[in-house]
Design brief:
Blueprint: E1 6-11, H1 15-27, E2 33-39, E3 43-45, H2 50-54, E4 64-66, H3 67-70, E5 74-78, E6 80-85, E7 90-95, E8 98-103, E9 106-109, E10 113-115, H4 123-126, E11 127-128, H5 133-151, H6 157-166, E12 168-172, H7 176-192, E13 205-210, H8 221-233, E14 237-240, E15 244-247, E16 251-254, E17 259-261, E18 264-267, E19 271-273, H9 275-278, E20 284-285, E21 288-290, E22 303-305, E23 310-311, H10 332-349, E24 366-368, E25 374-376, E26 383-384, H11 385-399, H12 403-418, H13 436-439
Parallel strand pairs: 1-2, 1-9, 2-5, 9-22, 11-18, 12-13, 12-18, 13-14, 21-23
Antiparallel strand pairs: 3-4, 6-7, 7-8, 10-19, 15-16, 16-17, 20-21, 24-25, 25-26
Helix pairs in contact: 1-10, 5-6
This protein binds flavin-adenine dinucleotide (FAD).
The site of flavin-adenine dinucleotide has 36 residues, from helix 1, strand 2, helix 2, strand 6 and helix 7.
């Protein structure tokens, strides 16, 4: 190493990358290291509130936390890493059409995940995800547009058939993305239904499909059953142990043989690690980059990984019969804490503090079902209804990593209860930009890079 300060490069400004840098900028004495963040956007996206953006409750910008303001000691490079050379200790950064090499002494890979796709005909073209602001804003406009179009259909056989397709929403994946979107969107439409002449929220058919036998399995069977009960009581057609066989622009064929006419297919069937990981030539588990318990990547000195993209042994979970522990779940909570842990361990490698393995027992998840309904499991305590709703909102306000964003989101919730609901269509996202590959920028890693199921 030369006499210059060590350069720590972090790839991805989400929960893990942000918290790694936040720790390092606080812990390291000024001038002792150069901190660089490579990420495509100048904000951390608070993704747990994306369903609220897609239903107009929370303004899109309010869940975007300014990286420049929160990471003042960090040099921000707006671009995407397309490759890593562990021998030369460089990363390739694509900014627009230009690719540049950037050297590192420590490299932290936290590029997160993308919507998991399976090789199902029609899904890449016709399904929409909910992992980015572009997708959330598009979904909201798309729903409004479908109801506007349905309202204007003539009362002919053809018009009635088209209307039925426009008024049907199919969501695949009964985890937090699919479940929260369906539950919240349904409540939202009941609040704005007077916008239409002859269409009411109750005319919309909601179908929630999952291969698993339960809704919200992350929250355990009791809360999952409660959420299922809430959805079914509201008329949502929940089809478990069922998947999608194919899709086109006007219908979805399910594996149980049913064909459902629809022009809205939300794909929330889990996540896969960023395609960046697959191209590294390093060991992976279920597509995630294998790390040691201290979040370092074996065999490459100075390489670290955390968050959704990393396979981190869960020291708080019991080992299986072969003595193998599962990996930590891809949640914001783990990503956030792994970010801080990797920051601490890099600081220790630079001579400041002591390294520790990552160990954290998940404090539980929350899911907002719209209106006064929610399910939450803080510290193992099962909550439902208005109490769970309060806990859910409190949790988000606590975890949002900037006071300005907390105040804005809190104000959105307050105004939502005292002002007429937002119902305008912004039409700022083109349909082609909302496709899974475009919205989640998977094409930059090459044609075969999107991991299938
Ligand atoms: C709709 C929705 C609801 C959710 N609800 C919850 C919840 O209630 N509770 C919970 O715990 N978790 C929830 N999650 C999951 C949670 O958001 C993720 O687990 C978390 O964001 C993972 O953090 P991360 O830092 O690994 O990745 P991310 O937060 O996704 O950050 C990855 C960052 O890397 C950037 N990036 C990607 N590729 C590159 C590249 N090649 N070069 C440079 N930068 C790159 C991305 O732009 C992004 O900034 C939800 C997710 C979604 C989509």
């Amino acid at each position: 190493m030369t006499g210059r300060p060590a350069r720590v490069v972090v790839v991805g400004g989400g929960f893990a990358g942000f918290n790694a840098l936040r720790y390092l900028q606080r812990r390291l004495p000024p001038g002792s290291a150069e901190l660089v963040l490579v990420t495509p956007d100048d904000y951390l996206l608070y993704s747990p509130l994306l369903p609220e953006v897609a239903t107009g409750v929370v303004e899109a910008r309010h869940i975007a936390v300014s990286l420049r303001r929160r990471l003042r000691r960090v040099r921000l490079v707006l671009g995407r890493v397309t490759g890593v050379d562990p021998a030369a200790r460089t990363v390739s950064v694509r900014r627009g059409q230009v690719t540049q090499e950037l050297a590192w002494d420590h490299l932290v890979l936290t590029p997160g995940s993308i919507t998991r796709q399976f090789e199902i005909p029609g899904v890449p073209e016709h399904a929409r995800g909910l992992k980015t602001l572009v997708e959330a804003v598009y979904l909201r406009d798309h729903l409004l547009e479908q109801l506007d179009l349905a309202d204007a259909q003539p009362d002919t056989e053809e018009g009635r058939a088209a209307r039925a397709e426009m008024l049907t929403v199919v969501a695949v994946g009964a985890g937090y993305t699919g479940t929260e979107f369906v539950a919240q969107a349904q409540r939202w439409l009941t609040r704005i239904e007077r916008r239409w002449d002859r269409t009411r929220a109750s005319d919309v058919r909601w179908v929630l499909v999952d291969v698993a036998p339960a809704v919200l399995p992350e929250l355990g069977p009791q809360l999952g059953d409660h959420a299922l009960g809430v959805l079914r009581a509201r008329g949502v057609d929940v089809r478990l142990e069922t998947s999608v066989a194919s899709a086109d622009d006007a219908a979805v064929v399910l594996t149980d043989g049913t064909t459902i006419g629809t022009r809205t297919l939300l794909w929330g069937a889990g996540v896969a690690a960023s395609p960046l990981v697959a191209g590294l030539g390093l060991p992976t588990r279920r597509g995630r980059l294998v790390t040691r318990t201290d979040l370092s990547v074996p065999d490459v000195e100075g390489l670290w990984a955390a968050g959704d993209a990393a396979a981190v042994p869960d020291l708080a979970a019991d080992p299986d019969d072969d003595g193998v522990r599962p990996d930590t779940q891809p949640t914001a909570q783990h990503a956030q804490r792994q970010g801080t842990a990797v920051g601490r361990n890099i600081a220790a490698a630079l001579g400041h503090g002591t390294a520790r393995p990552y160990r954290h027992r998940d404090l539980g998840l929350v899911a907002d079902l719209g209106g006064l309904d929610a399910v939450a499991r803080p510290l193992g305590i099962r909550l439902t209804g208005p109490v769970a709703k309060l806990v859910t909102r409190g949790y988000h306000l606590l975890v949002l990593p900037a006071t300005a964003n907390r105040v804005r989101v809190g104000a959105d919730w307050l105004f939502q209860s005292i002002l007429p609901p937002e119902e305008t269509q912004l039409s700022v996202v083109r349909e082609e930009d909302a496709r899974l590959a475009a919205a989640q920028a998977t094409a930059i890693y090459g044609p075969s890079s999107v991991p299938a199921g």
